[in-house]
């Protein structure tokens, strides 16, 4: 795959150089660094966007490009990846310079074929048959594990029965994502294929077909092999049988259980591009993982030193994109910034990467684990980690055995729930059908203060909150209550038996498709019964709000069930103190803590600044922040419950406006004037991330136009209400956004408020940090391009490409420059890492 993509890359470069004018970036005449793969491919996939992005770069002939006489030598010599990814459609139609399918493909001038094409593969087979055979064998093996369970039942009106013989069932892989069952059935009928039942869910690339007999199956496989959609070959894969002998037959034979037993699915961080609280997702490679350990801790086989080196190197690669993209996006006639010109001295880095801070604790460090409820590869009801991506048909959940980042306590609670499920009369959630009851177990641990090293970490865990996610719709209340009582007994007994802390037991009711519940999903505290034997547990009072406590930098933090809290508390302490160190704080500093969660950053730094303003959209987290300020006797903080994009403009204006107009270029003053509004109180707070379906290309003005300020809920921990209009000499922002990065409106506000001279960016996703930094650091043109609203292709652009595109319409303003960066390893054994970058101007 890598080889073919690289070839695609070289193809693109050739095409570009054949059609482009050399780009002159002010005084820079040095050659550009090679483009990263994704960026290089993306602009070609969305050519009109690329045209917009690069100005003169992709000039088109007015003549009909398909005329032989005007054909570029590379015309249709590469397969169109846009066409392939979009199941055979490309907005450029026949004018696309890339081939739409094998039939259109032309040989290259050197008589070779696009290496991703079937022709090239065939040629390669001739040359190197053995290699290919080995590869095919490998693929064959993969086919065996793609689908862990058969998804069949008779509820789709196709008259089919559930399950049946796994030997007579097959998975079809690489089907168009947009297809649902009807499309699959029509396709099979059109091919004249007889089958018993066919199912497919929109969004997945796999479908499930069962047959009446071995002959029927055999002829279907013969007919289907070799078919392709767009540029993807259809694969026929095996459905893994489910040999697991269920312990409680009567319960499992319950009809609903039977239906749901068809697939073991969960959203633990994979399908939804999310979402452990560290923002970590399972890697693509995880889709082939065979154990939970491989899936969630893919670096566990390396020494910790090697892991750190590995992470540092991959962060370096991502950081280099900032330099390359700022160079590309630098407007014609404008000098390249000094940091770009000197980047060669740093091997292409935009600033020094000062190193990587290691985690003080390497094993069992996670204070929060989200365990999926599903079926193992053997079909056993399991509480653990999902092995891969649902869309690709990987659905198995395996126990968190040998996952070095999970504590013994969390593992134990997962196994208590798993054991309890073997006796449950309620079904496991089936993501394929969106039915079922049991969905997820979250174990949150709180520590008491004290010095901790690896071995003693568990000794410091003094509180545990269990959150069981269910989907109660359609189930009988009495049955549910009985199940909850039984479960509470099981947890209490297990805790007592194993001497585990158990502070709160909460049920979260969530009907949505994925397990990532909105912050306002109903929560219900369950009483924890006194254990019958062993350690005595307190009976918890369900009317008292469930929370656990932890400590950072000698401050106590109270955390409610849905509030964000960094999963590795001891490493987070290091992260926050680094951010504070770089922020250049003092008594005359006004610190904006953007995406403040429970107030951790602002509160730990409050004693070093004049005032903190925290902005956070999760209402529970904001309540926690107030409480935490109170517990710790901190009075100079104001926390605002709102999406940052809805209030940042008015807040900066409120605090910085006095001298801002003297400092700002006129265009920037104009733009900030548009973001008028006052902070009004409102009862509820918005809960979602960036609006679903909202184009990130949308101009901030458009978004700001919704005006937003009525969504604001605020309060101050300061006794001095006048502090809200106090002027501070030094204004600093520390931003710590979720994986997707900052909203464009926030970026625009930070960039255009000239009194904000220093910005510390903390990120769990270096890609989005780089994308945001492109917008913050690219020099302004002499004149801003207005009215370029052709955003149709934003979905196909890389984050860096999109950022370049957006940078073009940024109001004229002084850019930031990257000063230094540092990685902080909060997630040993995984590829994830936090990063801090200091930006100044
Ligand atoms: C990575 S966490 C950081 C929280 C906090 N700084 C900490 O370290 O504990 C990101 C936080 O941003 C919040 N968030 C997400 N989108 C937001 C938005 N648009 N506006 C404000 N807060 C947001 C989330 O609820 C979450 O608490």
From TrEMBL:
S-adenosyl-L-methionine binds at residues 566, 616, 736. SUPFAM superfamilies: CCCH zinc finger, RNA-binding domain, RBD, S-adenosyl-L-methionine-dependent methyltransferases. Pfam families: Methyltransf_31, RRM_1, tRNA_U5-meth_tr, zf-CCCH. Residues 1-75, 103-143, 262-294, 662-725 are annotated as: Disordered. GO terms for biological process: methylation; RNA processing. Residues 74-103 form the C3H1-type domain. The active site is at 764, 764 (nucleophile). GO terms for molecular function: RNA binding; RNA methyltransferase activity; zinc ion binding. The keyword Phosphoprotein does not apply. Residues 16-29, 44-53 have a biased composition (Polar residues). Residues 54-63, 103-135, 671-684 have a biased composition (Basic and acidic residues). InterPro entries: Methyltranfer_dom (IPR025714), MeTrfase_TrmA_AS (IPR030390), Nucleotide-bd_a/b_plait_sf (IPR012677), RBD_domain_sf (IPR035979), RRM_dom (IPR000504), SAM-dependent_MTases_sf (IPR029063), TRM2_met (IPR045850), U5_MeTrfase_fam (IPR010280). A zinc finger (C3H1-type) spans 74-103. Keywords: Metal-binding, Methyltransferase, S-adenosyl-L-methionine, Transferase, Zinc, Zinc-finger. Belongs to the class I-like SAM-binding methyltransferase superfamily. RNA M5U methyltransferase family. PANTHER family: TRNA (URACIL-5-)-METHYLTRANSFERASE, TRNA (URACIL-5-)-METHYLTRANSFERASE HOMOLOG A. This is C3H1-type domain-containing protein.
């Amino acid at each position: 795959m890598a080889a073919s993509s690289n070839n695609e890359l070289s193809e693109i470069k050739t095409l570009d150089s054949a059609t482009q004018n050399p780009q002159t970036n002010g005084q820079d005449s040095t050659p550009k660094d090679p483009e990263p793969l994704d960026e290089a491919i993306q602009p070609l996939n969305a050519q009109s966007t690329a045209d917009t992005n690069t100005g003169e770069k992709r000039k088109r002939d007015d003549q009909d490009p398909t005329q032989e006489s005007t054909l570029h030598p590379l015309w249709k010599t590469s397969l169109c990846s846009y066409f392939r990814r979009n199941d055979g459609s490309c907005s450029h139609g026949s004018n696309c310079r890339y081939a739409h399918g094998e039939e259109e493909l032309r040989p290259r001038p050197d008589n070779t074929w696009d290496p991703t094409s079937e022709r090239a593969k065939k040629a390669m087979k001739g040359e190197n048959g053995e290699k290919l055979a080995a590869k095919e064998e490998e693929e064959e093996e993969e086919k065996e594990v793609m689908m862990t369970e058969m998804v069949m039942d008779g509820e789709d009106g196709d008259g089919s029965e559930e399950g049946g013989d796994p030997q007579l069932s097959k998975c079809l892989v690489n089907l168009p994502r947009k297809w649902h069952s009807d499309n699959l059935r029509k396709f099979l009928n059109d091919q004249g294929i007889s089958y018993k039942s066919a199912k497919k869910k929109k969004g997945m690339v796999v479908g499930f077909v069962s047959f009446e007999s071995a002959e029927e199956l055999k002829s279907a496989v013969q007919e289907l092999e070799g078919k392709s959609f767009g540029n993807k070959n259809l694969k026929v894969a095996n459905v893994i049988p489910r040999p697991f002998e269920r312990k409680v037959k009567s319960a499992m034979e319950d009809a609903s259980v039977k239906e749901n037993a068809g697939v073991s699915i969960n959203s633990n961080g994979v399908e939804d591009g999310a979402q452990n609280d560290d923002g970590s997702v399972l890697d693509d490679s995880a889709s082939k993982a065979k154990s939970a350990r491989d899936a969630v801790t893919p670096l566990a086989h390396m020494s910790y030193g090697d892991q750190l080196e590995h992470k540092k190197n991959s962060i370096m690669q991502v950081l280099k994109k900032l330099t390359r993209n700022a160079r590309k996006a630098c407007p014609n006639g404008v000098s390249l910034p000094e940091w770009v010109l000197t980047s060669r001295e740093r091997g292409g880095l935009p600033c020094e990467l000062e190193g990587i801070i290691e985690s003080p604790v390497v094993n069992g460090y996670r204070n929060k684990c989200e365990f999926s409820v599903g079926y193992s590869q053997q079909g056993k009801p399991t509480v653990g980690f999902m092995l891969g991506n649902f869309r690709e048909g990987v659905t198995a959940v395996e126990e968190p055995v040998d996952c070095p980042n999970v504590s013994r306590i969390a593992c134990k609670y997962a196994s208590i729930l798993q054991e309890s499920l073997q006796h449950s009369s309620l079904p496991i959630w089936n993501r394929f059908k969106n039915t079922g009851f049991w969905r997820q177990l979250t174990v949150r641990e709180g520590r008491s203060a004290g010095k901790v090293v690896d071995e003693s970490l568990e000794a410091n865990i003094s509180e545990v909150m269990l959150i069981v996610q269910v989907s109660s719709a359609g189930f009988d209340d009495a049955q549910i209550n009985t199940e909850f009582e039984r479960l509470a007994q099981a947890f209490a007994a297990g805790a007592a038996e194993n001497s585990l802390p158990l502070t709160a037991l909460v049920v979260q009711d969530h009907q949505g498709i994925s397990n990532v519940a909105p912050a306002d999903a109903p929560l219900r505290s369950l009483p924890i019964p006194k254990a019958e034997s062993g350690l005595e547990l307190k009976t918890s009072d369900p009317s008292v709000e469930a929370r656990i406590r932890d400590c950072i930098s000698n401050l106590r933090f109270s955390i409610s069930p849905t509030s964000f809290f960094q999963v590795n508390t001891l490493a987070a302490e290091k992260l926050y103190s680094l951010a504070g160190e770089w922020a250049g704080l003092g008594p005359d500093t006004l610190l904006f803590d953007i995406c403040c969660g429970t107030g951790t950053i602002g509160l730990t730094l409050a004693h070093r600044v004049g005032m903190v303003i925290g902005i956070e959209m999760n209402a529970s987290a904001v309540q926690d922040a107030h409480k935490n300020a109170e517990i710790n006797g901190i009075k100079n903080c104001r926390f605002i419950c709102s999406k940052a994009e809805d209030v940042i403009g008015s807040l900066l204006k409120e605090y910085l406006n006095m001298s801002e107009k003297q400092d700002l270029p006129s265009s920037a003053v104009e733009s900030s004037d548009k973001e008028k509004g006052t902070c009004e109180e409102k009862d509820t707070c918005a809960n979602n991330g960036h609006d679903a379906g909202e184009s990130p290309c949308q101009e901030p003005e458009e978004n700001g136009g919704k005006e937003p300020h009525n969504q604001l809920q605020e309060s101050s921990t300061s006794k001095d209400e006048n502090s809200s209009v106090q002027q501070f000499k030094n204004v600093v922002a520390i931003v710590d956004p979720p994986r997707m990065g900052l909203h464009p409106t926030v970026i625009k506000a930070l960039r255009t408020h000239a009194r904000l001279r220093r910005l510390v960016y903390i990120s769990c996703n270096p890609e989005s940090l780089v994308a945001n930094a492109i917008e913050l650091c690219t020099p302004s043109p002499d004149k801003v391009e207005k009215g370029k609203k052709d955003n149709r292709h934003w979905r196909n652009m890389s984050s860096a490409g999109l950022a370049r595109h957006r940078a073009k319409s940024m109001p004229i303003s002084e850019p930031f420059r990257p000063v230094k960066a540092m990685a902080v390893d909060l997630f040993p054994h995984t590829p994830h890492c936090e990063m801090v970058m200091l930006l100044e101007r």
